[in-house]
Amino acid sequence: xxxxxxxxxxxxxxxxxxxxxxxxxxxxxxxxxxxxxxxxxxxxxxxxxxxxxxxxxxxxxxxxxxxxxxxxxxxxxxxxxxxxxxxxxxxxxxxxxxxxxxxxxxxxxxxxxxxxxxxxxxxxxxxxxxxxxxxxxxxxxxxxxxxxxxxxxxxxxxxxxxxxxxxxxxxxxxxxxxxxxxxxxxxxxxxxxxxxxxxxxxxxxxxxxxxxxxxxxxxxxxxxxxxxxxxxxx
Length: 234
Fold this sequence. Notes:
The protein is mostly beta strands. The protein has 2 domains: about 90 residues; about 130 residues, Jelly Rolls, CATH 2.60.120. It contains no helices and 19 strands. The protein has a 6-stranded antiparallel beta sheet with strand order 9-18-11-12-13-14, with no helix packed on it. Strands 4, 5, 6, 7 and 8 form a 5-stranded antiparallel beta sheet that branches.
């Protein structure tokens, strides 16, 4: 897999190409696409281990200078590989389960308060709408799953960025399937969506004073959510 950071406008993006590297160091491409479908994943670093490759990305600040004292964060580690058809295979590193609280905060569809950092999995066999953040005016950040069409849509249109234009919904296309699963990792303003094991969306979304972290999931979906807590050492 060849990973590239594309300095092709704003926001900048990342891409991947899978193929074969010959003995003469000539790379023959097979297929490729977006490495991450969000607007806040760039300059990925890879740790090649004997049995896997781990990847981190730099998630910059999506707000004006002067509003923060730091310049971005690293994403959660991702295990990257390829499917038999050459397309991207990606999943959160299994070590992240070590940050789960002792008990899940939600195990069924409905409403629940969300912690500041959490790991949420939603599986759906029909159209499902997930709300993650709500403003006092009623605006919402939503993730919509459509298994029949093979699409996952992240809509954060009412949470503006430093760019002049308002952010448009991010739509990810994957092969249609009877069941569609999305895993959402949130740590403060860092939102990472894993669509099955085929695509990711990384976005910085900043909570405002009147926003409420409240989960709402359409009935019929399977839901499990864990608060993420710092590891403890005895």
